[in-house]
Specification:
- This protein is an alpha+beta fold and about 210 residues long.
- The protein has a single domain (about 1-205), classed as Nuclear Transport Factor 2, Chain: A (Roll), CATH 3.10.450.50.
- The chain has 4 helices and 12 strands; from the N terminus they run H-H-H-E-E-H-E-E-E-E-E-E-E-E-E-E.
- The strands form 2 sheets. Strands 1, 2, 3, 4, 5, 6, 7 and 8 form an 8-stranded mixed sheet that branches.
- A hairpin with a 4-residue loop joins strand 11 (about 185-195) and strand 12 (about 200-205).
- Helix 2 runs antiparallel to helix 3 (about 30-35).
- The longest helix has 15 residues, at about 15-30.
């Protein structure tokens, strides 16, 4: 266990965290890896939002884990928050799709706080090298165009999660929001500060389940 903790603490970037997570999914099991890297307040979708710690508790790993690769990574100026997205493949390409994950560095360790994605008809290419873009540290970030800057009233990780969520880095240079409706349709957006304004750099939309 000590070796695992030391290895996790040595991971420098969210891309490295994504790769470590992907390796552990193959070596240790898919849901085992999700549990290892999940923050206490992480959320997933099934298709409605669920607390990850409740959804993953006691869940048996599938015989073959999904394979995934970070293709793009958007990082806050302070380097403590990142949103990764990229392709995944299951059963040797019989099922393909994409994922989007929000990573947060706490006490020197990367943990994911949001993970979602969807299937696709055509696989996205596996990148030779991820595209990484860091938010500008210049200027004074304005209010990002989020669904709301008021966090849900419930305590994180307690009771059923709300059907929307918002977040932003401590330095306010990266922000994201998501919302899921009663039929399981979901939207997710990421905004990055470029020194003058916020740019929308990720937009995911899934159909009703």
């Amino acid at each position: 266990m000590l070796a695992l903790l030391l290895a996790a603490a040595a991971i420098p970037t969210a891309v490295d965290a994504e790769r470590a997570f992907a390796r552990d999914a193959q070596r240790r099991g898919q849901w085992t890896a999700f549990r290892m890297y999940a923050d206490a307040d992480a959320v997933m979708f099934n298709p409605q939002v669920v607390w990850a710690h409740e959804f993953l508790a006691g869940r048996k790993d599938p015989p073959v884990s999904v394979r995934r690769w970070p293709a793009q990574s958007y990082v806050s100026c302070d380097g403590r928050i990142a949103v990764n997205t990229g392709p995944w493949v299951r059963e040797r390409g019989r099922s393909v799709g994409y994922f989007t994950t929000v990573w947060q560095r706490k006490k020197g360790r990367w943990k994911w706080v949001y993970d979602a994605g969807d299937t696709l008809k055509v696989a996205r290419p596996v990148p030779r090298r991820p595209y990484v873009r860091k938010a500008s540290c210049a200027g004074r970030p304005t209010r990002p165009p989020l669904l709301s800057l008021t966090p849900p009233s419930k305590r994180p990780g307690k009771g059923p999660p709300d059907d929307y969520g918002v977040g932003r880095s401590a330095d306010a240079t990266l922000a994201w929001d998501w919302k899921v409706d009663s039929k399981g349709a979901r939207k997710f957006r990421t905004f990055l500060w470029n020194g003058a304004r916020f740019e929308q750099v990720i937009y995911d939309e899934t159909k009703p389940q």
